[in-house]
Write a structure and sequence with these properties.
By secondary structure, the protein is of the alpha/beta class. 25% of the residues lie in helices and 27% in strands. β12, α8 and β13 form a beta-alpha-beta unit. The relative contact order is 0.16.
Amino acid sequence: MSTAVVIEAPGAYRLVPHEPVAPGPGEALLRVHAVGICGSDREVYQGNRPEGYVRYPLIPGHEWSGTVQAVGAGVPESLVGRKAVGEGFRNCQVCDRCHAGETTLCTSGYEETGFTQPGAMAHTLTLPARLLHVLPDDADLTAAALLEPAACVAAAALKVNARPGERVAVVGTGTLGMFAVQFLKAVSPAELLVVGTRADRAALSRRFGATCFRTTDQFLPGDFDVVVETAGSASAARTAVRLPRRGGRLVLTGIPAPGADGLDPTDLVVRQLEVRTVFGAPPDAWAHTVRVFGAGLLDPLPLVTHELPLGEFPRAIELVGAGDPKVGKVLLRP
């Protein structure tokens, strides 16, 4: 029997029978292969996601991969049978920001798969077909379930515009950090430093292309052209801002907890740093991610440590929040 996870309210979930939603005009129905769990899913379950960025009751799941099973009117039939991933932001497509390609800044308000719209923790998912990004026929769908966080990092990589021969650094050694290493390695940097709190991530960082690894308590040089922060804490942001050279480029992708101390504006101005931020991934970042993945330059599978059936949703949430260094990316398999 098809099932779905429904979070009724913070701390309360049910596993319920799931009926596929027939695709309407402009929509596609996908058979879900795998769903990733991240910290924001834990926030939804615990009830501490910011107001306006979740709507209960909810089928969660914004990191997913699947295969198109059916399409509605106006959608090419050639999509049926294709492997795909999809953007989460349900943008309006008619406002000024959407026309500029900045769909994560849609002025019609926030709507996102898995947070305010039904997500992928079910056997099927129906969504606007315009959000789909088709994968190569031989794509590994388990690996592809991680392309949503990869796309967020791709957005950072595109904004920071690292060039061959530059000195680059990544702060954070989680899923986002390891994707940042892979994206930045692909542009042939002269040096690629990874900074984290866990020394046990050094080997994986080097596997993905890091030339140097240091923990935050070690000496950190401050002469990098490009720095990408991925850890999502105020301390990581403060560490990251120490690394760029004068006039260097910094992009922040993590979201610190409310009330976190900010960066020193005097320091930013005097050093003439270029600071950018990322919240979600616009279409160009998704397209870049799928292209890099298809070219074999992005390897998500080593980040996956657990694959669980959909019914083990509570255990998956517990694993994500346990702080166990042996836990990497946790996937649910509907």
